[in-house]
Specification:
Length: about 300
């Protein structure tokens, strides 16, 4: 039996998307307390392997303290290498020998649902004259609507998508806007799932608005699969997995895609919609509630 600890504490408090003055840039405050739950679980659970993820936009001071606390050098990896989405993340892990994945060259056009049209057309677009036919491996902004806020920018499908988000407003909220078959539209939920390299309709158990939020909060599956593939664990080995801030159980999906079948999976998550989605895909997940429970004196995981 091998024990694995995975998780990514909510990045809300560390993100550059926070309003000026609200962002935490030092190793203190609620954001750091959420990370400390992971450290406590690491100390008590004593896993064979651990993997921690967060947003690259966390301050350098916080990133440095994460490295000191986990006693590892952070990996800086962009999901753009394995998906059609620009998504820069930091990973802390004791898994050895991880190499940067090869660039698969995926673009937004590769994840589109053929023939999909939205009823409410967006026509008031100010195009910037940039060549939309270029074969780019980066985000290509080709136009704007409204005042040009984050949800009002139009991108080319011949490049990468902007980073999916869990929140945000505007006509392109959570996905950005794209010129697709002559129509400017946001991406549908299937396309958003594909940007996170999840199976189509992985989040089907919850309402559409919650689906976008859950996907935006989640992991890019193929990047996690790449990292976990370096574990030297035989596929027939029983696994006990502890997942903090589990979300929609992407970690479970990744382990099963790697070929592990004998998995006992404990998930700490408090939002109802992600829990519902996780259980729809994996009814045997043991849902444990609030991650702050790891601080209790008698806390333990049944092996």
């Amino acid at each position: 039996m091998k024990k694995i600890l995975i998780g990514g504490s909510p990045c809300t408090y560390w993100s550059v998307a926070q309003k000026p003055g609200a962002r935490e840039t030092e190793a203190q405050g609620l954001g750091w307390e959420l990370f400390e739950n992971y450290l406590i679980a690491l100390e008590k659970f004593k896993p064979d392997f651990f993997l921690y993820e967060n947003n690259e936009s966390a301050s350098k001071a916080i990133q440095s303290e994460i490295e000191k606390s986990l006693k590892v050098k952070l990996l800086h990896l962009d999901s753009a290498l394995v998906s059609a989405q620009k998504r820069q993340r930091i990973y802390g892990t004791n898994i050895q020998g991880i190499e940067v994945p090869k660039d698969r060259g995926l673009k937004v056009k590769d994840i589109l649902v053929p023939g999909f049209k939205r009823e409410n057309l967006i026509s008031e677009v100010r195009f910037n004259g940039k060549d939309d036919t270029e074969n780019n491996n980066r985000i290509v902004r080709i136009g704007t609507i409204g005042k040009g806020g984050q949800g009002e920018r139009v991108y080319s499908i011949n490049g990468k998508s902007c980073t999916l988000s869990a929140n945000g407003g505007g006509r392109g909220a959570k996905t950005g806007l794209y010129l697709v078959e002559g129509q400017v539209r946001k991406l549908n939920i299937i396309e958003a799932e594909r940007l996170q390299t999840l199976p189509d309709n992985y989040t089907k158990a919850i309402k559409e608005g919650q689906r976008y939020k859950a996907v935006g909060n989640g992991w890019t599956a193929e990047m996690i699969i790449h990292i976990l593939s370096y574990m030297n664990i035989p596929k027939e080995e029983p696994l006990v997995v502890l997942s903090l801030y589990d979300g929609i159980a992407t970690g479970r999906y990744c382990l099963e895609k790697l070929g592990y079948k004998n998995i006992k999976y404990y998930a700490y998550e408090i939002e109802e919609s992600p829990i519902k989605c996780a259980l729809d895909n994996y009814p045997d997940i043991i849902q444990c509630g609030d991650a702050f429970k790891v601080r209790e004196d008698d806390w333990k995981v049944d092996l």
